Amino acid sequence: MNVIVIVSDSLRRDRLGCYGCDWISTPHIDDLASKSVVFDKYYIASFPTLPYRADVFTGRYTFAYYGWGPLPRSEKVLSECLSQSGYLTQLITDVPHMMNEGRYYERGFNGWEWIRGQTLDKYQTVANCQVRLPYDESLYRRNGELYRQHLRNTLFRHTEEEYFPAKTIRTASRWLEYNYKTDRFFLWIDLFDPHEPWDPPQWYVDRYDPEYSGRIIPHPDYNECSFLSEEELKHCHALYCGEVTLVDRWVGYILQKIEELGLMKNTCILFLSDHGFYFGEHGKIGKHTIRDDPWALYEEIAHIPLIVYHPHVAHKRIDLLVQPQDIMPTILEMCNIRIPDTVQGKSLFRALSGGQTAIRKAAISTGALHKELPSVETRILVTDGEWSLVFGHQEENELYDLRIDSKQENNLYSKNQNVADTLYRNIIASLKSIHCPGEVIDKIDTYYIQGR
Predict the structure, then answer these.
(1) What are the DSSP calls for 113-132, one per residue?
(2) How many helices (H) and strands (E) in the chain?
(3) How far apart are CA 92 and CA 166, in angstroms?
(4) Predicted local confidence at residue 160, as pLDDT
(5) How far apart are the two ends of the chain, measured CA to CA in Å?
(6) At what angle do helices 49-58 and 327-334 cross, to 10 degrees?
């Protein structure tokens, strides 16, 4: 069995047609979903970009001992398991965080290719061309220099084929043309879009906000969204939606290539994201704070898409509670490769055919919790897929009934503390079962008690 994984950074599940969105155009991803197993309760564990990928690559809850930095060299990773078992493995990505500063996320792959130029990547220097932000620095703050570098990197871009999703997908498609006859291959395609800065070709934006004539802010400061007018916030969202449709168009391109090469009959395809983004929900724009007021990981951030195509499994929807740690053991079991003892996730292979009724009682989503590690500070989310408990950093505990309050607007903690306590006990028991460090358990416990 061949395996292709396609990751789309910052893609919200509720912006895909297959997850209920009826106003953003995503026909190609939706078509894949119509032939696949769609998981309805897939939640991040470690947050954000790099820690999420560390979870997937290792099958472990890395928030307990890993932060934002290089992939630990001592880890047993998915690519190594496949390469050592005779798979031809390739990483193709335009995500700069994975590749710059010796992050080592290419380890274990037989080959890798980095499509240069996204956002902070120090790719282009243009000595005789001064790059200026379109509007006042306060709209960008920390993101200002990142956006300046992005403008340098894309200064000579003119056609859609020169945009990053197109370049990354075309590179992956060429690799498939070279290697489609190999006995077994594993291809990981990692797209940075629709991560900001949002700058798709204008015709994509015009689908969602055609009459707009105000300030265009592709990389706003992560903040309370009151610094944007209602029209500006709407247009930020339109830019993002344009990028979602751009990503879908090029995902469709490689799906067509897979079909043309006759690979649908012997290839498993996984499509997933790493987290979402706030566009005014809970009064915020962004995904986390860059100051000292840790944001909560509500549904818009933590509840993400997971679509698994298997040539021998019919389309269905599954509401098992699953997390990124489950991806590695699922792929290894699918490929008849022994799952390392270090893996803490659960294989979903039996679930694909309907033979599994439960994976876990609760899921946890959080930034790094080890006190000595660099991290994005967040408040912790614990969910069973029906109730959502949010707590941490001396804030009051919050509890939401997702069955009637998917936007998490009505805090029921004071009325249903027994439900919250059950959720909390379940996740602590789960963490203890995987030998989570005691100091991490103590930190979580302190947060929960302080919020009562």
Answers:
(1) EE---STT------TT----
(2) 13, 16
(3) 12
(4) 97
(5) 50
(6) 40
Q: Looking at residue 230, which CATH number applies to its domain?
A: 3.40.720.10
Residue 217, both tokens? 């802010």
Nearest 10 degrees: Cα torsion 115, 91, 248, 15? -110
Can you spell out the DSSP letters for 283-325? GEEESS-SSSSPEE--HHHHEEEEEEE-TTS--EEEEEEE-GG
- Reference 304, options 49, 52, 50, 42; nearest CA is 42
34/126 Cα distance (integer angstroms): 46
User: How would you class 367 by CB atoms within 10 Å of its CB: exposed for 0-12, middle for 13-18, buried for 19 or more?
Assistant: buried
Provide the number of structural domains found in the chain. 1
Boundaries of domain holding 196: 2-450
CB atoms within 10 A of CB 53: 25
Note the pLDDT of residue 73: 86
> Which residues does 107 contact at the CB level (< 8 Å), separation at least 6?
71, 73, 77, 79, 80
Q: How many Å apart are CA 212 and CA 227, to the nearest integer? A: 18
**pLDDT(387) > 90:** yes
Backbone angles phi, psi at 3, to 5 degrees: -135, 130
pLDDT, tens digit (0-9, with 9 covering 90-100), for 205-218: 999 999 999 999 89
Task: Return the bridge partners of 390, or none.
Answer: 381, 398
Please give the backbone phi and psi of residue 224, each rounded to the nearest 5 degrees, phi first: -60, 135
The pLDDT score that the predictor gives to residue 128 is 66
Nearest to 190, CA basis, from 113, 266, 301, 130: 113
Q: Which pair of structure tokens corresponds to residue 371?
A: 């006190």
Q: What digits encode the pLDDT tens for the residues 419-428? A: 999 999 999 9
- Between CA 451 and CA 449 the distance in angstroms is 5
Q: Which amino acid is at 36?
A: S
Cβ atoms of 14 and 197 closer than 8 Å: no
Residues 54, 75: Cα–Cα separation, whole Å = 9
What are the residues whose beta carbons fall under 8 Å from the beta carbon of 207, sequence distance 6 or more?
Answer: 25, 241, 242, 245
Cα-based distances in Å from 396 to 125, 209, 214, 337: 47, 38, 38, 45
Examine residue 194 and say whether the peptide bond preceding it is cis (omega within 30 degrees of 0): yes
Q: What is the dihedral of CA 447, 396, 401, 234, to 10 degrees?
A: -110
The two tokens of residue 120 are 């902070």
In this prediction the pTM is 0.96
